[in-house]
Amino acid sequence: MVDIGSMIADLEAESAEVDRLVADLPAEGWAAMTPATGWTVAHQIAHLAWTDHAALLAITDPPAFYRNLEQAAEDPESYVDRGAEEYLDEPAALLAKWRAGRAELAAALAAVPAGEKVAWYGTTMSPVSMVTARIMETWAHGLDVAQTVGVERTATDRLRHIVHLGHRTIGWAFAAHDRAMPDEPIRLELTAPAGGDVWAFGPADATNRITGPALDFCLLVTQRAHRSDLALVATGPVADEFLDIAQAFAGPPGGKRAASDVA
User: Fold this and answer.
1) What is the pLDDT of residues 200-218, one digit of tens each?
2) pTM as predicted
3) How far is 47 from 92, CA to CA, in rounded Å?
4) Beta carbons of 242 and 260 less than 8 angstroms apart
């Protein structure tokens, strides 16, 4: 049985690492443009704060969350951007809002009764899956911030949560891109950040397989890098197609990063 307490601790650790990237940034640093088109560092943190609040509503005030869900359905292409814009504030206030919100969410997640599902965009999620999704988003947006401020982050074993989510959402990635649902499973065999250990998901006898570094797989499913810039190897047509459309997050297909110009 999954220990949600340890997963929440991983979410808090991931959030704290991103927090350290921005805690002492001057105002011009918060205004710097990140690799996400049109988003500054402030937008990245505002998005995390906004999404934490949406998750908190889903747990503590479902009617309010469903009203938000209706608004998202009316304008799915720009809803996320508008959410980030709504949460923008001067740096100190925005940082305080994010800190308070993520603490409230952690407490709410820990209190969800075992076996209960939480509404989310296009699906329902267990508290464990919700924590996993928050780890994924915090890590991905933290990467954008780190790249902008010139800090190289060290990959940790918390990436295993994102690998697991990336594998579980293979079918979703096909659906999001209007592709036929695959009828063959994909096996992942990915090397952990520290090396040595291999994280495996999927049937051992699957003919469609993806191998390579776990970090690269996480960059792919969060759409932080183009597949041509990653050391991932696909065996089989389903696995190969998935590498073109991988997406571990809810919503319409994201704006994938362009391939590097470096040969």
Assistant:
1) 999 999 999 999 999 999 9
2) 0.93
3) 16
4) no
